[in-house]
Amino acid sequence: MKDRIEIRGCRNYDELLKVVRLCDAAFEKTPFEYFERHILKDATLSPEDTRILIVDNEIVSSVQVFPRTMYLNGGKIDFGGIGNVATYPAKRKFGYAELVMNDAINYMKEQEFKFSLLTTTINKYYDKFSFETLNRELIEINKVSPNFNKSIRKFNRVNDFGVVKNIYEYYNRDGIGPLFRDIKYWEAQFDFCGEDENLFLVFETTNSVEGYIRAVRENDKIKILEFAAVNDYLQIFKSLIESLCYQTGINDFEMFLSESEKQKLQLKNYISKIDSDLMILLFENRLTELQKRELTKYNNINYWLSDFF
Ligand SMILES: CC(C)(COP(=O)(O)OP(=O)(O)OC[C@H]1O[C@@H](n2cnc3c(N)ncnc32)[C@H](O)[C@@H]1OP(=O)(O)O)[C@@H](O)C(=O)NCCC(=O)NCCS
Predict the structure, then answer these.
(1) Tens of pLDDT along 74-110?
(2) Which of 58, 87, 128 to mutate to test the pocket of ligand 1 (most atoms within 8 A of CB)?
(3) Is 213 helix (H, G, I), strand (E, B) or coil?
């Protein structure tokens, strides 16, 4: 008997929960709670953004479309993030993921998105959908000296959110790659990004917060998720990482550093390596030549890890 295949968006919480279980089974090394955060807790998503393939009443394959808006050349542009591409191990190599990916691409086009982004370690798989790899620089800042600084304290969501949101906008709005964040997005992101709240620090002078950093511990390193400030970028950045070092006892840091961030931060003494995990799919006739160039130029996109989907 021929299998009955249906491809569509999720309709309810119960189906989303099944996708969480599917992703947990498909990605061996990623914990269940990661998929709970990115599938169930991201309030920017509607159920139908999670695309599924059903064979004989069982969800066997999924792809998630994350509706996002990026700052680009002083303007804003809508795109779709792709994540959680998964097929149950026993159901692989039947072309199921390919079918759901094609559905997700059509779905993104219907939403009028201009392009799509994803991160992967199996870049070759996405060639057939015409995704291109974007090379970025991942830098290591080693042997940071610990330093206690009385201008630095933990972020307080009730009191600091408004000013941090403004600092983020000020620092990022002329960039290429950072996301435009409205309040709904910020609130969703607090729930899905998986940061360590103790490593969200603000730099405060006598009467105002002037910069902040968000980070997580990963193995024996600190991974910087995002940074922003309103002045003295390098000085505030250095003070914040020295405080993180003082607080955690970890001296080694890692972050993505785009070409524009290099200009802004004027950071010296780091080791840089090329990362090729990010891929882009440009939708025909929806971008100007300048926008295409800006999006695909070497190490041009500044995508903060806290926005990772
Ligand atoms: C990747 C995945 C979704 C493919 O699902 P699927 O339903 O088998 O996909 P398709 O049938 O459309 O395509 C299968 C192809 O993907 C290739 N593929 C799967 N995993 C791969 C990997 N880790 N590296 C390279 N190629 C891979 C298969 O070799 C096969 O190639 P072929 O068509 O030339 O034989 C599935 O293997 C999976 O769930 N993997 C674990 C989760 C994961 O890595 N997701 C992608 C993260 S970006």
Answers:
(1) 999 999 999 999 999 999 999 999 999 999 999 999 9
(2) 87
(3) strand
